[in-house]
Amino acid sequence: MKYFVSLFLSLFFLVFMSCGNEDNAWDNNIPIITLNEQSDSSGLLKSQITDIINYSKINFDENFNNTELYKNLILSPKWENVSMVLQKQDTLHLCVPLLAQDNPEHNSYYEKIIATGEVKCIDEEIPFEIPNGWEWERVGNIFFVTKLAGFEYTKFFTKEAISAFNPIPIVRAQNVRMGFFEENKNEAISEMLSNQLKRSALNKKCLLMTFIGAGIGDTCIFPAERKNHLAPNVAKIEPLDDSIFLDYAVFALMSPCGQRGVNAIKKSTAQPSLSMETIRKLLIPIPPFKEQKCISLKLSEVLPLVEKYSKVQKVQNQINDEINILLSKSILQEAIRGKLVPQIAEEGTADKLLAEIHKEKERLVKEGKLKKAILTDSVIYKGDDNKYYERVGKSEIDISDEIPFEIPQSWSWCRLSSVITLLSGRDLTPDRYNSEENGIPYITGASNFYNGNLLINRWTESPMTVSHFNDLLITCKGTIGEMAFNRIGSIHIARQIMALTGIVGDLDYIRWFLYANVSSIERQANSMIPGISRDTLLKTLLPLPPKLEQKRINNKIVRLLDELK
Questions:
Q1: Rounded mean pLDDT of the chain?
Q2: Do 123 and 153 belong to one domain?
Q3: Could you report the per-residue pLDDT of 455-477, keeping only the tens digit for each?
Q4: Which domain range does residue 503 map to?
Q5: What is the pLDDT of residues 215-228, one digit of tens each?
Q6: What is the dihedral of CA 512, 515, 520, 526, to 10 degrees?
Q7: Are 348 and 412 in contact (CB under 8 A)?
């Protein structure tokens, strides 16, 4: 919801500003800092702006006439309250676009700090141009911002003093939502205690903003339907005068522009929190009052539609995700049943592939690379009675109950152990691995797997169980079923990892088969500790296609899954 509202507000402000307001449009040749001699009878505003005028003279044109500039300045409503602003705050930030008539190329935004006299260019802070008649303002120039009210909470809001049965609710961070206020119905204080606490009292409409926690930056209007008291983690943002329409102000602070400072803190800090000074320095665009009301009215009309759309979109996204998952599983199930690609007689049979694998095993045993026990293959065949039998050595048993579905004639059922070798990992003690890239990579679990790739953050110079290039790695403990091909080389694997090595050919088809069946394989383990056991994986029944058909199946799966993205 926050995303859609934020996106909508951003677009709305841009569109509305592009339309302008003819009633309040100003001549581009007149500076936006606004003053005239008739409205400044006390001379207060002229004295406050003198330094800024002098600054423009020094930097824009040595021959610039102060008197002429002063005559061409028009008074903006907010400047009528400068004296009150100065009374409430020690520091006043004036965001002043200065444009000398004789030098129109100098169109930059400047800011003067009244307390120090410092003047600086703030062009880099201005996110976009605003219509004539609008002004950029710091929140602190138009609002009184404080968290001091929350200090009363620590001293007076004890467990004994707070009860759902008391009449005066308190406001915590969880009561401030983005765009709406949610009254605390569980925590309240007595009327007598409330009368003692002046600083934390909320008894008129204002803005509230959370400045710490998960909802940092959430802003809403306190409706003042009844008195509340401010607890910690919430700032009160009270307008200095009636020139700001609160509904517009909350929309502006909810927008990406208003949230810039909040988002910057979120990205740069592990435990983000806003200072009151940070909130005061937030920049928001301020249109004339009538235009504020007009914008607020339009937003109030369309935001319910945005919320409705966001909910529908969320459901649709969830459905799409679920459909994609189901379609992916369906594709894999079709693949391992021999229904994804047609069978081609010229590509041979799986029986021939198994014979080739057995011959390769004999060679590897003869060379001492594999143990002789690997030659005791399981042979699965279909008898004349249409039942399936498995022969291991001289033993033969009926396994028809284990066969889950029929496969094409060119395919064969086999145990996974017939086509792969399996290496189980071993953990290393901390003294045997490092983070300085010394030795070979060491992967420990699911955190090293990302989108079918391996992430390396540890290395070891004392490897014990080493996976080699093109092995298929699978997590067997903790998060089950994460997979990736070893495209790196020699890697030490921990006990949460198993490495599958193909006897003949690649393991692309084996990977898809495992993706489709990892849940059922885990259930077969029948262990108190979730995971895939070595024996269970090796005994898994595999529907095996001929070698060339495996390649066609892999290519078809990759293409179809890409289309689902």
A1: 80
A2: no
A3: 999 999 999 999 999 999 999 98
A4: 345-564
A5: 889 999 999 999 99
A6: 110
A7: no
CB-based contact 499:423 (threshold 8 Å): yes
CA distance 509 to 554: 6
Kindly list the strands in the beta sheet with 378-382, ordered across the sheet, starting from the edge strand earlier in the chain. Answer: 378-382, 388-392, 395-398
pTM of the model: 0.50
What is the identity of the amino acid at 2? K
The two tokens of residue 47 are 């004295």
Q: Which pLDDT does position 215 carry in this prediction?
A: 85
Write out the two tokens for 342. 């047609």
Selected residue with higher pLDDT from 219 and 161 = 219
Residue 389, SS3? strand
Q: Is residue 354 situated within a structural domain?
A: yes
Identify whether 449 is part of a domain: yes
Which of 45-54, 141-150, 170-179 is the least confident region?
Answer: 45-54
**Residue 10 falls within a domain, yes or no?**
no
440-443 and 491-493: which strand pairing?
Answer: parallel
Contacts of 491 (CB under 8 A, 6+ apart): 440, 441, 442, 443, 454, 466, 467, 473
Residue at 175 is within a domain: yes
Query: How many distinct structural domains can be found in the chain?
Result: 3
Single-letter residue type at 354: L
**In the predicted structure, residue 51 carries a pLDDT above the cut 50:** no
Q: Give the pLDDT score at 564.
A: 79
**Closest Cα partner for 516 from 321, 337, 281?**
337
Q: Strands 449-450 and 497-502, how do they pair? A: unpaired
Q: Which residues contact 164 (CB under 8 A, 6 or more apart)?
A: 185, 186, 187, 188
Phi, psi of 283 (to 5 degrees): -100, 135
Please indicate, yes or no, whether residues 426 and 547 belong to a single structural domain of this protein. yes
